[in-house]
# Entry
Amino acid sequence: MTPTVVLSVIIGVLYAAGVYLLLDRSLTRVLLGFLLLGNATNLLLLSTGGASGLAPILGYAEPDEMGDPLPQALILTAIVITFGIAAFLLAIIYRSWRLVRQEVIEVDEEDRRVARRSGTDADEIDPDDLAPEDRPAMHADTFAADNEVERRLAQQYSGMASDDIDLPPTQRRKR
Amino acid sequence: MLALLLLHLVAAVLAPVLVRCWGRNAFLALALVPAASLGWILTRLTGVTGGGGEVTETVPWVPALDLSIALRLDSLALVFALLVTGVGALVLLYCARYVEPDDEGNARFAGILTAFAGSMLGLVLADHLLLLYVFWELTTVFSYLLIGGSGSKLPARRAAGQALILTTAGGLAMLVGLIMLGETSGSYLLSEVVARPGTGPLLIAGTMLVLAGAVTKSAMIPFHFWLPAAMEAPTPVSAYLHAAAMVKAGIYLVARLAPGFADVPGWRPVVLGLGVATMLVGGYRALRQYDLKLLLAFGTVSQLGFLMVLVGGGSRELAAAGLAMTLAHALFKSTLFLTVGVIDHATGVRDLRRLSGLGRRLPVLAVIGTLAAASMAGLPPLLGFVGKEAAFTALWDGGLPDRTAAVVVLVGLVLGSVLTAGYTARFLWGAFARRPGSADGEPAEPVHAPGALFLAAPATLALLGLLAGPASPLLEPLVTGYAETLPLLVPEAEKLALWHGWQPALLLSAVTVAGGAALFALRAPVYRLQRRFALGASADEGYWNTLQTLDRLAVLVTGTTQRGSLPAYLGTILVVVLALPGAVLLFRAPWPGQWRAWDTPAQAMVGAVVLIAALLALRIRQRLSAVLVVGVTGYGLAVLFALQGAPDLALTQFLVETLTLVVFVLVLRKLPKDITERHRPRERAVRGVIAVAVGGFMACAGAVAMSVRTATPVSVAYPEAAYDFGGGQNIVNVTLVDIRAWDTLGEVSLLVVAATGVASLVFLRRRTGVVERMDPVQLAREDRRADRAPRRQWLAASVALAPERRSVILEVVTRILFHTIVVFSLFLLFSGHNEPGGGFAGGLVAGLALVLRYLAGGRYELGEAAPVDPGLLLGLGLLLAGSTGVVGLTLGAQVLQTAILETTLPVLGDVKLVTSLFFDVGVYLIVVGLVLDILRSLGAELDRQVDEEDPIDAAPGEVIVR
# Structure
């Protein structure tokens, strides 16, 4: 199949503009970039159907005069989905604006926190850091069923958000 | 057999309900399930042992993968199934008195324990390699849940995680190994694999990997440490999973494979070496435990090593001894665990330094415990003695191909048995003896005698161990059925019996008992010796250090690669796209030989408009203007679609573009007018370079892909198929609702998700419900107050708007057009099968009608126009689209296949009904629901927040995710 210069140029420019906007920090411009990318992709899909033809409707055109119906079907749903996603992004923009008066992609705090973190305080606690009687069974041949351990750990790690520590202290079963 | 497994499944699902109804007595009912299985297996006993009458059952599961639920009950499976179901029933019985009556965790515990019993039964019955693996991992998962318990204890969580990580790692290795074995042998049926293992290096590698699974599951060194740590689980779990059943899975697998694989190079060194080492290490560690449960746990590790040697040796006499010993071990070890459970329950203490004088206060329990312990130490006349005797005899007579190896293994086993006898004595002394050192009456809590039901399970198990010793000749057919599949290496096979006459093995037994007694008598010096030679390092520490290293590595990698900037991440991704596929495009791709300038000159003109609009979008900082120019590219695209011969696309694109603009305006009116520029010029330059490169790359890639295309498009047959099977003339629409209906179903599901997401983001708390409507009383009051604006003659709720926000012209136009537009949308829907239109376009048009009502009349007007919950529309649409597929299936056609119904009606004439219309109606409803949900969220709710100056007043402790 022969590519068309005009369509290729439009596709290229739409992609370039879309990517440029997508790399912005403003969420609105990201969304605009997303829309442009969506348009560019739809056009790219359409262009793969070959040269222009007649509408793929039986009775209106003979099958060999028609444009390729498959890319058209794919694009049709893509258009509606782009609309849905755009609405979703808009809702994100609005929410961000309403809650923090910003519509900007900020530096991810969680990522920065991980990056700053030294390797030692990974979530698993080294048994060597525990008192000998609190270590797991194979360490000191004893059980660590004591709530005291949990409480001490909870104090030690009180500043950190972790599923491990936030649980309420256990009620020891009455025998 | 499948029925038995399903019975377990049903019981496991019902268990929580039963526990809620009947309290802890529900365990009695649950115990009936494994008991019934046991009964069924016993009825097959004579058939299976009496000469190869195996029971098999095959149900196809995934035929395409050659995967079937193949179950097989032969004599080996029968022995293990007896253990699994018998001990399972007794342990559940025991639970009925062990658990606290009002413990919240009981329901969960009962369900998981029953499910475990079922999966363990499935494991020993499975005859398909992959089915075996599935059950294998199920037992791992249930074990994890049972060890972790309610998840509120740190040590329990850690022990559970450790067991899971180790056994799953082994299990994954095993999966790879099983596939290798299946491929080498040419069959995935376990029985055929064992019969014809095949040859080659893949066989050796596969065998080693499978052994890795067995070794981790059965807690061989260096992976033994998870088992003692797993003692955090309640005692019945320890008795069942970590003594009788789950840890035996590795033993079972080795026994299962031994007939075919014992001669594979490397098998015997691994199995025998690890087995003997584990037996010695476990026994040595057991000797210095204070916690009775830990003592038993290390004892289990030790005994598992013993069993591994016996079943993995690959000779008939060792295998027979191994099976007898497996039975014996399951009986005595679960009894001992249950005994400890009773002690723990009665006194709250398991530390043998604090217990004293229990033997006198709980005499029945002491008898039970002593019987089981005697079996563990190998004293006559118990089954443990018979098994040990048989093992010693087999090795003494040379039950291994290599004579030297047999001697070494025998020495190891005798030493291990000495340790076993030693820690058995320590256990009995610790649990029941009255020690002068500690004050009588410790523990301070009064000991109340356990009830008869509580003691029933350990008593039954202990009695079985006692009776099975003298009756061991009766067990002979049970073990020989399996053992005969292995070669006989000694001149004459010894039969199981209590008394073989004066034999070397008897002397060895005497040595072990004497040695154990000596170890016990000299326990103080032995303990000092152990302390002196205590190792600084342990396998457990190695494990934690490995995990720590992994954690550190993860933090390091995350910290270096994730710097927190989304544009940087996207940029990286795009640069990689340019570097890899881009380089291929540049250097390897065939450049298109010929180009066409345009299809029509109009294409170029529209293209120019689109280009200008796209470039303007980069420059404009004003929000609304930027949105408008992007909208221009969309409309331009619609024209291009029309020029290309795609009327459906053009229609949809026009409608969507309009809707998008409206929705944008709805939100952007709340935001500041201008977009702030936050990028330095250098950043902009980098972005520009990347953007231009990506644009160029995509354009070239598209052109190159087109020019090199040689295959016939798949859609060549679509026109014919569309009419013949789809019953429609609009091929695009038929493609959507019939030929590629699966795709469409997925895509409309995505729309439902997007709509729900929008509502969830805008409504901070509650996102379902209808659009707010006006209270009639209030409406009437507003109506009177709105004397300056026209009264409610055009629209239902527009009076609620402030007079300055109302437009009479818009109201009149809306009033006239609304119903027409809705009818038009229905026309598009119904005619879409043969002409441009369809569910998507129709739904969008109806959505536009709603937009019109909302713009003209405000948020209450939207509620009047569409007094339904958008969620209902979305769900109904999805249900309709999905059930079209199911209906097609029930009518014998394929999923989502179209049926054409033609008939002649009196007035309407020829009517042709295509069932895919219902699918399209579903699509229509979803699109309308989507638009309505967006209007409700981004329109009406935003208005309400402004009208009522709704502050975000988070309740204390409430977290609103940004």
About this structure: Chain A has two domains: 5-100, 126-170. Chain A has a mean pLDDT of 74. Chain A is about 55% helix and 0% strand.
